[in-house]
Amino acid sequence: MTNDDAENQPAQLALAVQLPDDETFGSFYPGDNAQLITALKNAAIGQGDELLYIWGQQGSGRSHLLHAACAELDGEGETAAYISLDTHHNMSPRILDGMEQLALVCLDNLDAIAGIEPWERAVFNFFNRRREKVMGSLVISAVNAPRNLGLSLPDLASRLDWGVAYQLKPLDDEGKLSALQLRSELRGFKLPTDVGRFLLNRLSRDMSTLLAALDLLDNASFQAKRKLSIPFAKEILGF
C-alpha cells in the first residue's frame, strides 16, 4: 500500500475522535427539539434521511447532538466519523477522502470553512461521492441555514438544500434549569433549584458556560464534602 493509498483508507484517518462520554441522547434535554432528536436517532441506525442539516446558534447543543449520534452508531457496531470543521487549520481537506464508505459522517461547524475554496470543494466532492454510494447518513451542522453561510461555491449551498433541515431551538431559562438538573443527576448529585437559578442569573446563559460551572461545582463540593448551596457557589465561582 502506498502512502497515498493509506491516506485514503478510512481506518487510517483520524476517525477515532475521543467523543465526550457524557454527551449522549440521554444527557440532552430536548426542549422543543423532539422531532430533530428522533431524526438523528434514525440516522444513527441507518433508517433516517440521507442528509440532515442542523443549524442553530453557538452553545445551543449542536455538537452534543452530533456526538450523541456517533455514540449511538458506535453502540451498533458500525463506524462513524465526527469532524469539527472549526479545527480545519489543523487538518487537510483530504481527511474526507474515503469517508463515503462509512455508515455515518457528522460534519460540525460547516460555517468555519465558508469562503475557503479548498475546503468547500472537498466537502462538495465528498457529498457527491457519498450520494453515489447511497448508504448511511450525512449530518451537517452550522450556525445558519445553507443560503446564509456565505459559501463561495454556489453548488455546495445548492447540495445542502437537498437535505432535511432542522433549526435547533434554544432552551428558555426553565429548560436550561432542567438541562442542568438532568446533567447533575447523571453525574450522581443533586442540583438544588435555587442554586440552578442563581447560576442562570449570574453567569452567561449559554449552555457551555453553565455546564462548565456545574462541573466545577460538582468537583469542588465532592472535594470539600459540602452540599451545593448558593453561598458555596459564590465562594467557588468568586462572586
From TrEMBL:
SUPFAM superfamilies with a match to the protein in the record: P-loop containing nucleoside triphosphate hydrolases
UniProt domain Hda lid: residue ranges: 173-237
Domain of life: Bacteria
Cross-referenced Pfam families: Hda_lid
Entry-linked PANTHER family: CHROMOSOMAL REPLICATION INITIATOR PROTEIN DNAA, DNAA REGULATORY INACTIVATOR HDA
Name by which UniProt lists this protein: DnaA regulatory inactivator Hda
